[in-house]
Amino acid sequence: MRAESLIVRGLGLCSKRLETLVPDEIDPRSPFFVGRRQGPYLEISGKRLVIFCSNDYLGLSYHPGVRGAVLEALEAFGAGSGGAPSTSGFTRLHHELSEAIAEFKHRESALIFSSGYLANLGALFALGDRDTLFFCDRLNHPSLLDGVRLSKGDHKIYEHLDLDHLESLLRDLKGYKTRIIVTDSVFSIDGDVAPLPEIVELAKKYKALTFFDEAHATGTVGEKGGGIEDLFDVRGSVDLLSGTFSKALGSQGGFVAASSRTIAHLKGKCRHYQYSTSLSPLCCAAALESLRILSAQPELVTTMRSNFDFIRENLRRLGLSLPERPAPILPVLFGDAGKTRKAAKELYLRGIFIAPLTPPSVPEAGSRLRITTMATHTEADLKILVGAFDEALKELKD
Ligand SMILES: Cc1ncc(COP(=O)(O)O)c(C=O)c1O
After folding, report:
1. Is pLDDT of 14 > 50?
2. What CATH number has the domain spanning 13-51+298-397?
3. Which residue among 184, 186, 242, 244 is best mutated to probe the pocket of ligand 1, counting the most ligand atoms within 8 A of its Cβ?
4. Pick the residue with more confidence: 199 or 29?
5. How distant, in Å, are the alpha carbons of 103, 176, 295 from that of 237?
6. So where are the chain's domains?
7. Which of 29, 161, 176, 377 has the highest count of CB atoms within 10 angstroms of its CB?
């Protein structure tokens, strides 16, 4: 490779090079950067695109109220938090955010981390002693798997959503003081949902605790976006709920919500909380304002869902076989990486940005476009997507 190309690759692609490398721009193996992003619109190499793969499901990251709250926090605290929570890093905003998320999740208490990844890693690390056995769904998010691996506990993997397999493991593996079932609430790649009532029933039967990751459930499922317990109308049934502020809440940072006793235990034992600079106050302010907006305007969830229904129905009319999902994640499977990248490129050329999901994120046969909708997509945006898909599918056939 020429020296010039190497430099460009090291720094991110310059726009001249991007123009000549359209396919690479949307190839996850190539570095690229987003020049600008405002709500559901972004710019790559000067090209304006409508994004249909963002986790900013409610469009809150660019909401004027959220931006205003961030500016106020900037004046009051500056950009960074300047310390770990036990030194100077725990501000009024951290306190308010932990109270607000605990209330939103109907729990006594919550602990705030600087990312959702760290929340899972830290909480599971702190929960698992030598007498702990974790039971993990095979398709759990890597942060959950890394957390149980990092802990002193043992773990067993059950097949994805396979309750019979989970029960057989619970039945056969006694002899641990603490047993914890760990699962995503909404699985990020496919948008499928863990069967909460059945898992909780098994947990009761076999005296296990439950740990659900609400990353893609918060703000998306349940009538007002309350998450998986609201979806199944069984509030308070899970022992620990973790999650992130980086998706439907439009900010950054993670949390674990549980009883005051459990949170006190985590606070004392969790190195990922104690020895990491606490979340930026700007992110706290954004997440706090998002929670306020979501409570005041639950219709955002309804809008995001009706956008989702529109897309699903219209793509089905084009002949795509698409599953029913309560969460706004629609997997369009192509089954091989090359075809998936080509589909993404055809959409890109028609003004749509959907990053292709190919190995190693998914197995080759699971290569797909993961479509998500936002509350801020307009009807025109949705129609552009459907039209672009229609043409892209024809291109793929030729
Ligand atoms: C299911 C799940 N859990 C945890 C995370 C990590 O959250 P964050 O991006 O805030 O680190 C993600 C997102 O990437 C996720 O999809």
Report:
1. no
2. 3.90.1150.10
3. 244
4. 199
5. 15, 22, 22
6. 13-51+298-397, 62-296
7. 377
